Amino acid sequence: MELLASAFLGDIISRSISFFLDRYYQRQTAGVAESLERLRPLLLRVQAIVEEAERRNITNQAMLRQLDMLTHGMYRGHYMLEAFTCRGHGEVDVMAKDEVRDDSFTLCRFRPAKRLCLSPRTPKEMVSGSKGLNELTKVLCGLEMIVADIEEFVLFLKCYPPICREPCIRYLSSDMGMFGRHTEHERIVSFLLQIDPPGTANLSVLPIVGPARVGKSTLVEHVCYDKRVRNFFSSIAFFTKDDLQGVKADANALQESGIIKYRNGALPGKLLIIMELIGDLEEEIWRRLCSLLGQHGHGSKVIVTSRSERILRLGTTQALKLNVLPQEAYWYFFKMIALRNAGSKDYTELSSIGMEIAAELNASFTYANSVGAFLRANLDAHLWRKVLEGLREFTTKHLLMFGEHPIDLLMKDRPIYLWRMESSSEVLIAHRSYEVRSPGQKVPELKMHDIVYGKARPHGRFECLVWKSHIPPYYSYLMSCGIVKPQRMVVKKRSWLQSI
Description:
By secondary structure, the chain is α/β, with parallel strands linked by helices. The protein has helices spanning 2-54, 61-89, 91-107, 123-127, 129-148, 150-157, 168-171, 182-193, 216-225, 227-230, 241-245, 251-257, 283-293, 327-338, 344-359, 365-377, 381-402, 406-411, 448-452; strands at 204-209, 235-240, 259-263, 271-276, 301-306, 320-321, 416-417, 427-437, 461-468, 475-484. The protein has 3 domains: 7-161; 186-321, Rossmann fold (3-Layer(aba) Sandwich); 327-488, no CATH class.
């Protein structure tokens, strides 16, 4: 009798738990669906305002900061909308199985303690369970608060004159525009067009710092193409550190030492100097440059770009610091490249895989363009999954062995292992990554994606093209690689690949 009562009680408890879990899941699903329905029209409204704002010559810094907040909220909203839509498609389950298989395969060869190095915020984790619903609610409430107070912003926006420029959302569709730096662009233009008071002795200097390939040169180049800037300065000249070391004590010879980007003899002698550095600049060179610029017309200005924060001491105004794009903005950039030609039938499935691929690229502009262009030309879900698996193993291997993302290692001039779609007994190694200005130098015909995806099989040491930019300053990004046999490799922690 006791056994029967115990079994009966256990069955009731089990049914009750299942009932409450089902009710909880249904409520959560209904909550997600309701939030997504509220999010869609909000995003349309915000996107319309952002596009209109990017067509206006906004000079007020507070307005630009508000536009920056609005744009970031739009990117977060689009990210959450697509992440939850993809979750409902069922692709997450497929990806989870792939991830378990990949991780178990990797961990059998590397020490599990180093799993701590892996990035915790994947698209799946951001939308899973109650945490995902909380994140969605937070994004939705944030956008609703912004839109509730947007009337004042729109009213002030109408006071600024329109300029002949397409918003970044438009020109991304043709690979011909800069992404994610509108506020920074306008801040630099505002600095350059600011008229110094008469009698000002100090030279106006704006330092711009940020990690490698975050977009410093691209941003400055776009500023120099701005008509407002070209109508203000008589000359725009670019200098590297080597150019500056050869500058003589002659004001007329100063411009000849660098690259003249623009010249207008009809304007007064105001000169804009762009100094592109990697590290610091010696005090002697800086003093000599300031002395020469003092001989030019009043109002000459200097922009200094570098990876090193030591150049901050040169500035006469607050420095501009460029960081990598947030995950949500980077996904928006990546999908505009990779999913541009995807049809509505395949979009959701490809988008779910694409979000995972973008998460592996470490917010790199170069690899977003390189990988994204390949995916756009091959809109096949099976191929995209193979690319994702290869990238995951490629990333995880370096994180477990060396504690850093392979793209970060390459930016530090450290060699990395590259992955290939097809298995091979040979090992492909990238020794260094660098860029050249495409119009001025010949670039290799061999392309990196042809090697990775099995269309080309080079031997020995070689140079290859990773990606050629179609926007100023028109860099071509190259890689110096080599093919070696496995038995020739000597791999040691912190002193690896030195025998190659």
